[in-house]
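Hello support,

Our group uses your service weekly, and this is the first time we've seen a run hang past the timeout. The protein is Mechanosensitive ion channel protein. I'm not sure whether the cause is the sequence or the server load. Input pasted verbatim:
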Amino acid sequence: MSKWLRLMRTSLLALLVMAPFVIHAAENAEDSAAAGEETVVKVNASAELPKMQKILDKIKGQVSGETNDAQLSQLNEMALELSGNADTLGQALIPQRQQLMAQLAVLGPAPKADSGVKETPEVTRKRSTLENQKQKLDEQIKQAEAIKSGSLNLSAQIVNLRRDNLKTQLALNSGSIFGPRFWAPLFGMQQLDGEKLANFRDELTDTVALAWEPGWRLGTVLWLVAAVLIATLGRRYGEEFLAWISINKLPEGRLRRSFLAAAIALTTLVAVVLAFNFLDQAFTRREEVSDDVQGFADRLVQLSLFCGLIAGLGRAFLSTRRPSWRLPAISNEVAQALKPYPPLTALLVFIFQTVEALNTTVGTSVGTTILANGMTALLVGATALSISFRSSRVRRRLVQEGQTPEARSTLVGLVQMSITLIGLAIMLSLIIGYVTLARFLSYELVWLGIVCGAYYFLSHLVSDGCETLLSVNSLTGKRMQTSLNIDERHLSQAAALLSALGKTILLLFAVVAVLNGTFGTSTPIELLQKAVEFWGGKGLESLNIVPAHLVNALLCMVIGIYVLRVVRRWLDNDFLPKTTMDIGMRVSLVTLFSNIGYVLVILLTLSTMGVQWNKLAWIVSALSVGIGFGLQEIVKNFISGLILLTERPVKVGDLVSISGIEGDIRRINVRATEIQLGDKSTVIVPNSQLISQNVRNATMGNAQGVVTITLTFPLDIDPVQVREILLGVYQENERILDTPEPSVSFKDLTPQGIVLSVTGNVSNQRQTGSVKSDLLFDLLTRLRKEGIVLSRPQTMIIERKNGEMVVKEPQQS
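Update from on-call engineer: The timeout came from a worker crash unrelated to the input. Re-ran successfully.
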C-alpha cells in the first residue's frame, strides 16, 4: 500500500514540475500569436493526461479497500493535488487553443462550393491542420476538466468515508480535546467547508422564501401556529385528559399509576413529533425545495422521535406534578433535583444530532465532524455525571437533615454506578483523544436509557393490565369467572401467564433494539421490521430455529406434559389398581412411563422448534467429552435406574439394607433411589450402588418376619417351666403366626447359665421390631411374676488383705 502511495506521489510531483514549463510554453504561444507568427506550440498533454487518469484510477482502487484513517487522509490529499494539477494543465492548454482560434480567424472560413471563390491547396491544408489541432485541444481540455471533477468527487467520497469510519472505528485516536487540532475548525474553518455551508445556508434561505411567497404564506402561518399549539396546549390537555381517564375510568389498583406514567410519556412523544412534522410541512411542502434541504428536514423529524422519547420517559419517570402517582421509588426531593435533566438531555441530543446531520448533508471536512462528535460526547458525559452526583448529593443532604431517603434496590445502585462509570469513560476517552469511542459511549448510554425506560414502563403496564383484567374484583374478571365457571386461583394463574408472555415479547423487542438499533441510525419502524425478521428466523439459519416456531414448540411442550400427566394419573389411580400387580410394580411402571414420556416430549418439542440434529453435532461432541469426564457418574446412575425399573431387583415398598442403611424404598428416580429410615428421615442412594453392591431385600418374595429372642437363665432353673412360659407368651401375642408355630431351642450351656432361644414368625419384616418390643415386655413381666430371674454376667472382686490379693465372687441377690 505505501509503495503505491509513494509511486503516485512521485507522479504527482512530476506533474507539478511540468506545470511551469507548460505555462511558460503557453505564454510563448501568446507572444507568438501577438507577433503574427504561425507557430504551433506543442504541449505534452497527450502524455500527461493518461498518466493523470491512471493515477486517479489507482487512487479509486486504493480507496475502495482502505479503512485506515491515516491512509485515507493521504489519499484525500493526493486526490486534491491531482485536481489542482489537472486544473493547471487545463488552464495551460487554453492559451494554445486561443492561438489556434486566432490563426483560424486569419485564414477565415472555408469558401462555399457555389460561391465561385477558390483558395489555394496550401490554405486548405493549413486550415484542416489547425482545425484538427483545435479539436484535439478541446478533447484534452475536456479530459482535464473531467479529471479535475473526478478528483474532487473522489475527495468528497473519501471525506464521507472517513466521517462514516468515525462512527465505527472506536480505536481511532483523533486528538485530545485539549489539543489545538480538535478546536482548529472553530478558528480556521477550511475554505471548502465555508463554501459548502454558505451554499446550504442559501438553500435554507430560499426554502424559507418559498414558504413565505404570496399564496403560501397563510398555510405557513397556520402550520407554525399548529406546531406551537400542539407542543404546548396539546401536550398539556392531552395529558390531563388521559389522567382523567386513569382516575375515573380505570379500576383502583396499580394499573392507574402505570397507565398514567405511560400516558405522560406518550403525550410528550406525540406532541414533539407532531410539532416537528408541522414545522416540516410549513417550510418543505413545496416541490421546489432542494433535495438536500428536504433530506435535512426529514432527518430532523426522525430525530424528534428520539428527543420526544427522552423527554417523555424522563417526565414519566420523575412525575414531579403527581408525586403520589410516581411509579419508581424515588423521593420527591431527588425527583425535583433531577427535573431539568430530561429536557436538557433531549435538547443537547437534538442540537448536536442536528449539527451531525448538517455535516452529513453539506459534506464538511472530517475535522469539523470530529469537533461536533467531541462536543456531543463531552456534554452528554457531563450530563450523566451531573445526574449521578446530584442525586447522591441530595440523598446525603436528606440523611444529614435527619430525613430518610428512599430505599434503593441493588439494581438501582448498579444503574447509577454504571451511569457514573460510563460518564467517566467518556471523559477519559476525550482527554486521551478517542473521540469516536466517546461518541459511541455517549450515544449508547442515551440509547440504553431510552430502551430500558420504555421497557420499564411498558412491562409495568402489561403486568398491571393483566392483573386487573383477570382480577375477581374487576368487572371483566367477574364476568369471566361467571361465564367460564373457573376458580379464582385459575384466574390468577392466567394473569401471571399473560403477564409473563407480554413481558417476554417486550424483552424480545428490547433485545433487538439494543443489539440492532444504535441511537440515531434506526427508527422504531426499522426496529419493528428487524424484530419481525428475527421472529421469522433471520439470523438463526445456522440452527434452522425460527422464533415463530417457538410458540408452536411451547404449545407442543405444554400439551405434551399435560397429556403425559393425565395418562400417568389414569394409570396410577384407575387402571393399574385394577390389575394383579403389586404396588411396587405399579409405581415402577408409572415411573418408567413418565421418564420415557418426558424424553419423547422433549424430542417432539425440539423437532417442532425446527432444530436440525446434524447442526448439533458439536453439542454431541461436547457431551461425549463431558460423559468421559464429569458426566460418567450421572450416566451410570441413569442406566442403573433404568435397570432397577425393568429388572426390579428392588421395588418401591421393599425393605432393604445396604451399607448399614436399612429402610423402605419410597421412590426410584432415574438418578437415585430414596430410602426412608425408621425415624422418617430419607437417605438418597445412587442407583449404581444398588446395582454394584450387595443389597439385602428383606421383603422380596413376600418374606415373613422372624422374631427371635435369646435369654440366659441361671443353672438352677426348671428348663421345662421356662420353656412353657416362653411359648405361652409367644402364643398369646396375636401378631405371632400359628404356622409355623413358635419354638424354643436350647442354644448353649455355659458357666453363666442356660441359653434359651425362642422364635416366632410375623406376617412381614416391618412388624419385627414392634412385635419384639411387645414380647420383651410380656416376657420380663411373666418371668418376674413366676420368680424366675435372668442370669447375670460373672464378675470377680479382687481385694488386698495383709499384703495378699484375694479373689472373691459377688454375692447373688
